[in-house]
From TrEMBL:
Keywords: Cytoplasm, NADP, Oxidoreductase, Queuosine biosynthesis
Catalytic residues as annotated in Swiss-Prot or TrEMBL: C55 (thioimide intermediate), D62 (proton donor)
Organism taxonomic ancestry: Bacteria, Bacillati, Bacillota, Bacilli, Bacillales
Gene3D superfamilies: 3.30.1130.10
Gene: queF
Pathway where it operates: tRNA modification; tRNA-queuosine biosynthesis
Protein source organism: Planomicrobium stackebrandtii
Cellular localisation: Cytoplasm
E.C. number: 1.7.1.13
Binding positions for substrate per the UniProt entry: V77, E78, S79, H96, E97
Protein name, UniProt field: NADPH-dependent 7-cyano-7-deazaguanine reductase
PANTHER family listed in its UniProt record: NADPH-DEPENDENT 7-CYANO-7-DEAZAGUANINE REDUCTASE
Family the entry assigns: Belongs to the GTP cyclohydrolase I family. QueF type 1 subfamily.
InterPro entries per record: GTP-CH-I_C/QueF (IPR043133), NADPH_dep_7-cyano-7-deazaG_red (IPR050084), QueF (IPR029500), QueF_type1 (IPR016856)
Length: 164
């Protein structure tokens, strides 16, 4: 494998674009896939420590770190498109639990990964933090079993100030 070239990246509209437009309303169409050139299992992890969305009732901002991990199959998500997609939640009103599930569902639709998990660690508001976690493994594969195991064991360590 010699790497990627312009021909394999010509379908990407955001990467390298100096006139990037930031959308302030939720838009899954921003996401762009790229081919996964590797057949082995490996994790890809994205951390977004400056995620914001809005409370659907009050309109107040909610801040979070979104942890996204996946084992790709044939497709990956291009990172600039992911950044712009996550930014598009800025004025989107939804509950924390809905946000992580929306993100996961959009990425499953885009990439059809072998395994994926999304964990939102939202900063406390009113003295309460909400940290929803969701995952998915391809049905009928070892990744489905992996998803079940990780769901049962994902949060065994109590919260401390150093792991938030």
């Amino acid at each position: 494998m010699a790497g990627r070239n312009e021909e394999t990246l010509d379908h990407l509209s955001l990467l390298g674009n100096q006139n990037t437009k930031y959308k302030f309303e939720y838009d899954p169409e921003i996401l762009e896939p790229i081919d996964n050139l590797h057949s082995r299992d490996y994790f890809v992890k994205f951390n977004c420590p400056e995620f914001t969305s809005l409370c659907p009732q009050t309109g107040q901002p909610d801040f979070a770190t979104i942890y996204l991990s996946f084992i790709p199959d044939k497709k990956l998500v291009e990172s600039k498109s992911l950044k712009l997609y996550l930014f598009s939640f800025r004025n989107h009103g939804d509950f924390h639990e809905d946000v992580v599930n929306i993100i996961m569902n959009d990425l499953i639709k885009l990439m059809d990964p072998r395994y994926i998990e999304v964990w939102g660690k939202f900063t406390p508001r009113g003295g309460l933090s909400i940290d929803p976690y969701t995952n998915h493994g391809k049905p009928g594969t070892k990744y489905e079993e992996m998803a079940s195991y990780r769901m049962m064991n994902h949060d065994l360590n109590p919260e401390t100030i150093t792991n938030r």
